[in-house]
Amino acid sequence: MSEPARSRKVQCASASGLHRMAYVEWGERDNPDVLVCVHGLTRCARDFDFLAAALASRYRVVCPDVAGRGDSDWLRDPREYEIPNYAADMVTLIARLDVDSLHWVGTSLGGLIGMAIASLPESPIARLVLNDVGPVLTAVALERIGSYVGNWPPLPDIEAAQQFVRSTSATFGPHSDAEWRFLTEHVVRRNPDGSLRMHYDPALAARYKAEIPKKDMELWNVYDSIRCPTLVLRGEQSDLLTRDTAKKMTERGPRAKLAEIPGVGHAPTLIHADQIAIVRDFLLEGR
Predict the structure, then answer these.
(1) From CA 102, how far away is CA 140, in angstroms rounded?
(2) Which element (helix H / strand E) includes 34?
(3) Smallest Cα–Cα separation from 105: which of 59, 46, 48?
(4) Distance (Å, rounded) from C-alpha 259 to C-alpha 231?
């Protein structure tokens, strides 16, 4: 039986100073098989609770809150909310874990961070799962996401927060009321007056919106440098990762395997057993 989840923090550095990045760890502390799971733009480490529970008997599963989100510190300089700094934080985390290689699951932003690290010479990432993200990010999806980032309404109670999460995250696909409650509870924080707010630094929203391109963003040079076995999960209705881009990802760079999730847009939550099974089978292939 694996140990229950543990909450920890690691000190990281950026140009503006030191900050602490929080992470949740599952499984045996001394297991050399490590899986790092990194969430999307406005999500958090606890998104991976179901996946981690399913894999904790095989891995030491580590799920960080990217800087500015969840229980991690907010950065002093909002201009530092960018992938190179996130990747540097993750390298610091990997050093803390004291492993030479690991597996990586990244949803959206977490996948872009994984791509950045996996593309480097001597990368520690031995297997990579890109959850509904790739080397072409469509302008229409980036603009859609920008329309709600940082724009939450008054949230007097958890029911109002759940309604907001359901409306902005409808592309996650069908979920039960209990699953929507789970997807809400970890991404809100309580204000002094008892009302709720979203869990992330509002400054990262301004940074994101300032950087939204007017056309699709292409990162093929990064993707083509990846050498490790790669799996691409695509929501069948995704507006961020098009079917054409996903197909090209199977033909160049690491020549990824592709699995499409029906009835889902951006992005599969990895809560449901069928989605977890796809990831598990890929990560444990040949073991």
Answers:
(1) 33
(2) strand 34-38
(3) 48
(4) 8
Amino acid at 10: V
Q: How many CB atoms lie within 10 A of CB 150?
A: 17
CA 129 to chain centre: 11
Sheet strands side by side (includes 125-131): 6-14, 17-26, 60-64, 34-38, 102-107, 125-131, 230-235, 257-261
Tens-place pLDDT, residues 111-155: 999 999 999 999 999 999 999 999 999 999 999 999 999 999 999
| Amino acid of residue 183 | L
CA angle 244, 284, 50 (to 5 degrees): 80
Confidence band (pLDDT; 50, 70, 90) for 3? low
pTM above 0.85, yes or no: yes
> Among 271, 266, 285, 274, which Cα is nearest to 131's?
266
E strand or H helix that includes residue 230: strand 230-235
Element (H, E) at 92: helix 83-97
Would the CA dihedral through 126, 233, 138, 72 be positive or negative? negative
- The vertex-205 CA angle with 202 and 211, nearest 5°, equals 150
Q: Average pLDDT in the 3-11 region?
A: 90
Q: Which residue type sits at 7?
A: S
Closest to 150 in 3D by CA, of 269, 266, 42, 21: 42
Nearest 5°: CA angle at 113, between 110 and 118?
Answer: 120
Angle subtended at Cα 103 by Cα 131 and Cα 27, rounded to the nearest 5 degrees: 105
Burial of 74 (0-12, 13-18, 19+ CB in 10 A): middle
Q: What is the mean pLDDT of residues 234-262?
A: 98
267 preceded by cis ω (within 30°)? yes
